[in-house]
């Protein structure tokens, strides 16, 4: 599906249904939505079971979506599918850079390990909110290596003037 995205986006809307890229693009999206539906249906069954057992349901994204009366079930499926899709590249990219930076900074790695280890092998969402060093590590990783290209930081190789503004060589810019 992703390999077809550039072709689909670049083409005029009227021409899209005429080309094989469009069909492959739609087939890819349909597969993602079917996968999301399976996950959502499974989670909805778990939620229903927890409701019958009178367990707490706070803090879960799907529970929040399902309790939103303005969203249809179809909208919930779409929202979760898009969340899964968007999170794949951004999360893996951030995690890769974080691990790289941690490998270069053993002191930071040790401090982060100690903080995370205090919560056991599978910290809850609530426990993660009480991990300030983890949050700082992720924020610093995103500052140094943002996943959104429009926020990318670059150093100019030479003095430049853009829109009447002077930027000296080696100046950190956002583009």
TrEMBL record:
<dbReference type="InterPro" id="IPR001128">
    <property type="entry name" value="Cyt_P450"/>
</dbReference>
<dbReference type="GO" id="GO:0006704">
    <property type="term" value="P:glucocorticoid biosynthetic process"/>
</dbReference>
<keyword id="KW-0408">Iron</keyword>
<keyword id="KW-0349">Heme</keyword>
<dbReference type="GO" id="GO:0006700">
    <property type="term" value="P:C21-steroid hormone biosynthetic process"/>
</dbReference>
<keyword id="KW-0560">Oxidoreductase</keyword>
<comment type="similarity">
    <text>Belongs to the cytochrome P450 family.</text>
</comment>
<dbReference type="GO" id="GO:0005506">
    <property type="term" value="F:iron ion binding"/>
</dbReference>
<dbReference type="InterPro" id="IPR002401">
    <property type="entry name" value="Cyt_P450_E_grp-I"/>
</dbReference>
<dbReference type="GO" id="GO:0020037">
    <property type="term" value="F:heme binding"/>
</dbReference>
<dbReference type="Pfam" id="PF00067">
    <property type="entry name" value="p450"/>
</dbReference>
<dbReference type="InterPro" id="IPR050479">
    <property type="entry name" value="CYP11_CYP27_families"/>
</dbReference>
<keyword id="KW-0479">Metal-binding</keyword>
<dbReference type="GO" id="GO:0071375">
    <property type="term" value="P:cellular response to peptide hormone stimulus"/>
</dbReference>
<dbReference type="GO" id="GO:0016705">
    <property type="term" value="F:oxidoreductase activity, acting on paired donors, with incorporation or reduction of molecular oxygen"/>
</dbReference>
<dbReference type="GO" id="GO:0005743">
    <property type="term" value="C:mitochondrial inner membrane"/>
</dbReference>
<protein>
    <submittedName>
        <fullName>Uncharacterized protein</fullName>
    </submittedName>
</protein>
<keyword id="KW-0503">Monooxygenase</keyword>
<dbReference type="GO" id="GO:0034650">
    <property type="term" value="P:cortisol metabolic process"/>
</dbReference>
<dbReference type="GO" id="GO:0008203">
    <property type="term" value="P:cholesterol metabolic process"/>
</dbReference>
<dbReference type="InterPro" id="IPR036396">
    <property type="entry name" value="Cyt_P450_sf"/>
</dbReference>
<dbReference type="GO" id="GO:0004497">
    <property type="term" value="F:monooxygenase activity"/>
</dbReference>
């Amino acid at each position: 599906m992703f390999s077809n995205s550039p072709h689909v986006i670049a083409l005029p809307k009227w021409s899209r249904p005429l080309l094989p890229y469009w069909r492959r693009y739609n087939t890819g999206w349909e597969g993602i939505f079917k996968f999301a539906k399976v996950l959502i249906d499974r989670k909805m069954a778990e939620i229903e079971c927890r409701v019958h057992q009178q367990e707490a349901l706070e803090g879960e994204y799907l529970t929040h979506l399902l309790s939103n009366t303005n969203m249809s079930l179809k909208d919930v499926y779409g929202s979760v599918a898009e969340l899964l899709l968007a999170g794949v590249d951004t999360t893996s990219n951030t995690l890769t850079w974080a691990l790289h930076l941690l490998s270069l900074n053993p002191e930071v790695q040790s401090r982060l390990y100690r903080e995370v280890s205090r919560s056991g092998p599978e910290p809850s969402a609530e426990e993660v909110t009480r991990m300030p060093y983890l949050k700082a590590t992720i924020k610093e990783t995103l500052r140094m290596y943002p996943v959104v290209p429009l926020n990318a930081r670059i150093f100019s190789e030479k003095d430049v003037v853009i829109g009447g503004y002077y930027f000296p060589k080696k100046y950190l810019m956002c583009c």
